[in-house]
Design brief:
By secondary structure, the protein is an all-beta fold. Helix content is 1%, strand content 53%. The chain is globular and about 55 Å long.
């Protein structure tokens, strides 16, 4: 249903990358315009990674607003070598969405079979950027050798123009580890959250506190506890100097998980959220993102699926408003209900749903969500990029779908918004996935809207959203008491490099 399982995708199957590779091409930005950019600072575009006449597929992962009013995005792509699974692709654009530079980033000079995938990016105080993800080999020596086949967590620092400053590889578990989200901290360092695999391939949560050079200041592993597994997908610094992380607890039923830590990495409290009948979970809940709200509490967002009545009702975007101690203040699931259609062979019934990958609080106390939603067609229910706003109590105020269509078939080409950033003008910049109708290659789909989620009322990529109804998922909180390990992981350097690539820009609105 979703583009990826945020943490597990890197730990278990990074080789199954949705992206394709970019060659070591020299930078040459070219632009083809199929429309006009709105004078209000909104736009809808598509970015493709090209070299000569060859296009290489891109899969969006993260985007952040930058101090100059522009944006920095990271995507997965493949390297020119067919034997090298993948690298990261960084693209820096200005406030109008015009590319300023783009780079392949990874272990481009090490033997085939190595890879380095970045899935999270932040800007640093000196104007550079730090990328977090996972790698095998990449010159990290005995700490994470290519021959082991074991993935290690990875953090790379590049300058304001994309040149490598340093790269660090973290062997956080003998059976594999990865970073899924990385944020700046007030001391000039970073806080990272992700996953580890134990010797039985059970998954636990990983939190790394790093200094400004990528050195480990402290480390926490949360779980696994037997078959109970932990996947962490987001982390945020909090106003008290600590941190809050969110993700999923699998028991094996999936429950949304929120963990609060103090400034030294000690667990203050932990909560899992699900509904229960006779002591057994009755839903599947996952939290992909979390923020600290203006009132000091937290808003976690993700997905909820009612497991008690499969193919009846319901599933939808999950919103959990917590107080500062992790108690539920309110909860909402935005669901489209059951929909039946003829798929060309038989009648199929499915739940119309939505999913939130990112959330931002607005000045009026509401929240803006970005992710995907089912589009209700007569013969299918494809996932499409979705923007929505709820008020401070979780009531839906507006929602929009943005997607390109194949001009020959009329079918949608776009699939989801992987991430979004709050813009300085009160609008939002979301980075999604779309497909080239001619060659099937993946492209980045950036959409800059105003504060109401609209890029242009006449934009052909703006579409009505499927009707969603608020549902009470009736979740309750439990305390999982996960085992905690604080052993600091070995760290080694990596000879990461960047290579300038070419980009083609299509402007739709």
């Amino acid at each position: 249903m979703s583009k990826r399982c945020p943490a597990a995708g890197l730990v278990a199957a990074v080789l199954v990358s949705l992206a394709s590779l970019s060659p070591a091409a020299v930078a040459s930005a070219k632009s083809s315009s199929a429309g006009t950019t709105s004078s209000s600072g909104t736009f809808v575009k598509a970015y493709s990674n090209v070299s000569g006449t060859t296009q290489f597929s891109l899969t969006p992962e993260d985007v952040q607003a930058t101090s100059d009013g522009g944006y920095i995005g990271v995507a997965l792509t493949q390297s020119p070598s067919a034997t090298r699974p993948g690298v990261s692709w960084l693209v820096k654009v200005n406030s109008s969405g015009t590319p300023q530079w783009q780079r392949d980033l990874g272990c481009l000079s090490t033997p085939p079979g190595d890879y380095a995938d970045g899935v999270s990016i932040v800007q640093t105080a000196d104007g550079g950027y730090v990328v977090g993800g996972g790698t095998i080999g990449c010159g990290s020596g005995s700490n994470c050798p290519s021959s082991s086949g074991i993935q290690c967590a990875l953090v790379e620092k590049v300058s304001s123009t994309g040149g490598v400053v340093w790269a660090r590889v973290y062997n956080a578990s003998a059976s594999g580890s990865a970073i899924d989200k990385l944020k700046r901290t007030s001391d000039g360092g970073f806080i990272a959250a992700g996953t580890i695999n134990d010797s039985h391939q059970n998954v636990g949560g990983l939190i790394l506190k790093l200094d400004g050079q990528g050195n480990v200041q402290w480390q926490r592993r949360l779980g696994p506890a037997g078959s109970n597994q932990v996947l962490l997908s987001d982390v945020q610094p909090t106003s008290d100097g600590g941190y809050v992380a969110t993700g999923e607890l699998q028991t094996p039923a999936s429950s949304a998980l929120v963990v609060k830590l103090d400034a030294s990495g000690n667990v203050v409290w932990e909560r899992s959220f699900n509904s229960f009948s006779a002591g057994a979970p009755t839903a599947s809940t996952r939290a992909f993102t979390i923020i600290q709200a203006a009132d000091g509490g937290y808003l976690a967002a993700g997905h909820w699926d009612d497991a008690t009545t499969p193919n009846q009702c319901c599933s939808g975007a999950l919103l959990l408003k917590l107080d500062s101690a992790g108690n539920i203040r309110w909860q909402k699931a935005l669901s489209g209900g059951l929909y039946c259609f003829f798929n060309g062979f038989s009648e199929t019934c499915t739940n119309l749903s939505a999913l939130a990958y990112s959330v931002h609080q607005t000045a009026d106390g509401g929240y803006v969500l970005a992710g995907d939603e089912n589009l209700k067609l007569s013969d299918s229910v494809p996932l499409e990029p979705w923007l929505a706003k709820v008020d401070s109590s979780g009531n839906l105020l507006w929602q929009h779908l943005y997607y390109q269509t194949n001009k020959s078939t009329g079918r949608p080409l776009s699939e989801y918004f992987a991430a979004s950033a709050a813009a300085s003008d009160g609008g939002f910049f979301s980075l999604g996935f779309t497909e080239n109708a001619t060659n099937g290659q993946g492209e980045l789909f950036p959409v800059k809207t105003d504060s109401t989620g609209v890029a242009s009322s006449t934009c052909t990529d703006l579409h009505p959203a499927t009707t969603l109804n608020p549902t009470n998922p009736s979740l309750t909180a439990a305390t999982p008491s996960l085992p905690v390990s604080s052993t600091v992981t070995p760290v080694s350097g990596s000879p990461a490099t960047t290579v300038a690539t070419s980009i083609s820009t299509q402007s739709d609105c």
